[in-house]
Amino acid sequence: MANQVKKVTARAPVNIAVIKYWGKNDEKLITPINNSISATLSIDDLCATTTISISPMYQADQFWLNGEEQTISENKRLSHCLQKFRALKSEIKDHLKIESHNNFPTAAGLASSAAGYACLISALGSLFGISDSKQLSILARQGSGSACRSVYGGFVEWFAGNDSETSFAAQIVDENHWPSLRVIILIVNDKEKDVPSTSAMKRSVETSELIRHRAENVVPERCKKMREAIKTKDFEKFAELTMKDSNQFHAIAQDTYPPVRYMNDVSWSIVSLIHGYNDFVGSTKVAYTFDAGPNAVLFMEEDQVGKFMIAVNHFFPINQLDCLFRGQPIPKETINQGMIDYLSKKINIKEDSLKGIIYTKIGCGPKIAAQESN
Amino acid sequence: MANQVKKVTARAPVNIAVIKYWGKNDEKLITPINNSISATLSIDDLCATTTISISPMYQADQFWLNGEEQTISENKRLSHCLQKFRALKSEIKDHLKIESHNNFPTAAGLASSAAGYACLISALGSLFGISDSKQLSILARQGSGSACRSVYGGFVEWFAGNDSETSFAAQIVDENHWPSLRVIILIVNDKEKDVPSTSAMKRSVETSELIRHRAENVVPERCKKMREAIKTKDFEKFAELTMKDSNQFHAIAQDTYPPVRYMNDVSWSIVSLIHGYNDFVGSTKVAYTFDAGPNAVLFMEEDQVGKFMIAVNHFFPINQLDCLFRGQPIPKETINQGMIDYLSKKINIKEDSLKGIIYTKIGCGPKIAAQESN
Q1: Burial grade of B314 (CB within 10 A; 0-12, 13-18, 19 or more)
Q2: DSSP code for B323
Q3: What pLDDT, on the 0 to 100 scale, is given for residue A108?
Q4: Nearest-CA neighbor of B176 among B152, B203, B143, B140?
Q5: What are the residue boundaries of the structural domains of chain B, listed by start?
Q6: How far is B210 from chain A (nearest CA, A)?
Q7: What is the pLDDT of residue B322?
Q8: Which residue in A48, A73, B5, B175 has the fewest CB atoms around it within 10 Å?
Q9: Do the Cβ atoms of B248 and A255 come within 8 Å?
């Protein structure tokens, strides 16, 4: 009993906001200035995996991220998370070994901290016997704001709240609600330096003269309409709100001083491609959203995937050998020359502008993959 | 007497807004949703020239733009302008020959319609005996909104007003007020298609959820501060307001649906260069503003020109043979390696990204260059 090791492995998903979180009310507690809504992506294609073991034999807490040991004391948010769990279950005194990794390349520029913290919290929850989702969401939020949304599958809303206890996420619908919905991530080759989102967000709150108006007057109505669009599976409404909110988030970044810019010329060509494609087909069949980086996350129903990807492959040809690809095979369709001709009037071909494509769908929340004691 | 020809030649300047005009209250009258403030650029470097002759011998009104005859009836705004003048001076019944051209290439993507209409109105004013600046400003506004500001030199404010008679520009200070101020225009090579600003502006008013907040809550305070900064020649305050307002205008364009984007990757590199340069020297010495296109218009005091252009020449090297250059020679300075090293951390060298450079200053309003009767 004295040298027993208890071990838990959890997997947790990435989530992509369709109504964006941008701006904190409280930097330490990570409470936001507005509600946000996200889609949880399938764990099969993108996920964080965390294994935690606990044993009276361990001399100290230890943490490895993607194989490299990190100094826990230097990671304030991680230390804070561990303290919170220990405060909740003071009877558990043994040390922990935490190993975390992502199944997607960090070079892809996809926010991995949300999945990472949701995963850590799920594994700790399992180990410490805490299973209340709201409580886990609050704990995840304090690691990385949007991690509180990765605690659930399907579509999720994060309520801004007034303090730490009222700022948590809840599921709007689960991952089985809208089975035809697909997600395609276009990973954009980027040579410019990023502004870390934590500092950029802080600067926006301090300097943008539009951000409060967005938080107080625009987002509440958009969240209401977005919930409704998701519940009724109204793709056109969902798509328009998603695109408008992505645009407004980048508008706020630009209204920051000095300005913050995440979308580059290729991102903008993808925007042109999508509006052009929707114009060509005569209704809104594809939606884009961009996070704090140049990559495009696209939503569409399954029947559009093959047709739309013809356009992507034409205007953004990629070297298949170098390309990162994840997910299911994309359905093959014959080329529609009328569409290509129409889009050629709006955008130019961009060689080697994409680094990879991920084809995925809406998925479940964190899973406990393995539990063992020996 | 019956075959007398009376001829007038006017020259008028380009103006660049430092508090931006974006959005109309009335599409036909061209009254804006907010006040705007501009700097008039020197007529020696950029100007429109219009020659109008009037004679009882002429059978019909005729119009040539940059040497090519245009059909007046197809140009609603021009027809409207001529009607207005004829209504004011109904005793003048003879027909007109109008020849207009710009001394800067249209390919430069610099707004030429403001200079063009201010020039037309000045020449017509001279010919029809109308010299009241307010009245000329109102007439110019109806040709091209911001033309109402090119009726004056120095710094100029356009009052939004409530109707056509109250929406006009007035001079804040004349062209001799701030003699050390310099303007450098970096003309950016651009391969993408532009969205015409008239339609983009209309779409912003219809779809942006931030534009009214900007017009009603942000701009009035900014105009007040800008007037003060100009009157006191407070470069730092002037520069910060100019940059913030340029950023906010592009934020509104991005918040439009579908979004409108004028600044490309090179424009953004210029933004990075300027914030980096200001960081390096420790205070705000250079300001940028971008209109509805990718070109940067920079303001700085004369003592910065040589030092700053070292950085421009390093990071945006141009093929001198192909380069369009106008204005006075730029003072030569020795390279500051510390500055180059510092900026290299923020931006990459962009070969062939500039098409030209214009080095100019604040200038006077329209001039009647020649008047003759024979």
Answers
A1: middle
A2: -
A3: 62
A4: B152
A5: 6-178+367-373, 181-361
A6: 7
A7: 64
A8: A73
A9: yes
Q: Which residue has the tokens 């380009």?
A: B14
Enumerate the residues of chain A whose CB falls inside 8 A of the CB of residue B271.
258-259, 261
Burial of B161 (0-12, 13-18, 19+ CB in 10 A): middle
Rounded CA separation A247/A268 (Å):
11
| ipTM here | 0.94
Average pLDDT over every residue of B293-307: 96
With an 8 Å Cβ cutoff, are B248 and A209 in contact? yes
Binary contact (A261, B247; C-beta < 8 A): no
Q: What are phi and psi of A191, to 5 degrees?
A: -105, -10
Q: Please give the pLDDT value at position B106.
A: 61
Contacts of B141 (CB under 8 A, 6+ apart): B30, B31, B147, B148, B158, B164, B167, B168, B169
Q: Is the pLDDT of residue B107 over 60?
A: no
Rounded Cα distance between B238 and B153, Å, is 18
- Whole-angstrom Cα distance, residue A183 to residue A97? 35
Beta strands A68-70 and A95-102: pairing type?
A: unpaired
Q: What is the DSSP letter of B362?
A: B
CB atoms within 10 A of CB B362: 25
Residues comprising chain A, all counted = 374
CB contact under 8 A, B257 and A243: yes
CATH code of the domain occupying A6-178+363-373: 3.30.230.10
Query: B210–A271: do the CB atoms touch at under 8 Å?
Result: no
Q: How far is the CA of A277 from the CAs of A168, A311, B113, B190, B289, in angstroms? A: 37, 8, 33, 23, 33
For helices A197-207 and A235-254, the axis angle rounded to 10 degrees is 80
Rg (CA), chain B: 21
Provide the pairing of β-strand A181-188 with B296-301. unpaired
CA separation for the pair B267, B187 (Å, rounded): 10
CA A157 to chain centre: 13
Q: What is the reported pLDDT for A28?
A: 92
Residue A10: how many other CB atoms lie within 10 Å? 27
- Contact by Cβ (8 Å): A294, B265: no
Q: What is the pLDDT of residues B181-212, one digit of tens each?
A: 999 999 998 877 778 889 999 999 999 999 99
Q: Whole-angstrom Cα distance, residue B134 to residue B169?
A: 7
CA distance B345 to chain A (A): 9
Helix residue ranges per DSSP H, chain B: 76-88, 113-128, 133-141, 197-207, 211-213, 219-231, 235-254, 265-281, 305-315, 337-344
* SS3 assignment, position B190: coil
> If you count them, how many residues does chain B have?
374
Tell me the one-letter amino acid at A131: S
What residue type is B54 in one-letter code?
A: I
Is residue B151 within 8 Å of residue B125, measured between CB atoms?
A: no
Mean pLDDT, 10 residues at a time, chain A of 374 residues: 84 97 95 98 94 95 92 90 91 93 71 88 95 96 96 98 97 98 93 85 98 98 98 98 98 98 96 98 98 96 96 89 78 92 94 92 95 83
Bridge partners of residue B370, in order along the sequence: B9
Residue with tokens 């991102």: A267
Assigned CATH class of B6-178+367-373: alpha beta
Domain B6-178+367-373 shares a fold with domain B181-361: no
Q: Which residues of B touch A (CB under 8 A)?
A: 191-193, 209-210, 213-214, 217-218, 240, 243-244, 247-248, 250-252, 254-259, 261, 264-265, 268, 271, 275, 346-348
CATH of A181-361, one of 3.30.70.890, 3.40.50.720, 3.40.50.300, 3.40.190.10: 3.30.70.890
> CA Rg, chain A, in Å?
21
Please tell me the distance from the alpha carbon of residue A97 to that of residue A52, in angstroms, as a whole number.
Answer: 6
Indicate the DSSP class of residue B215. Answer: I
pLDDT at residue B326 in the model: 82
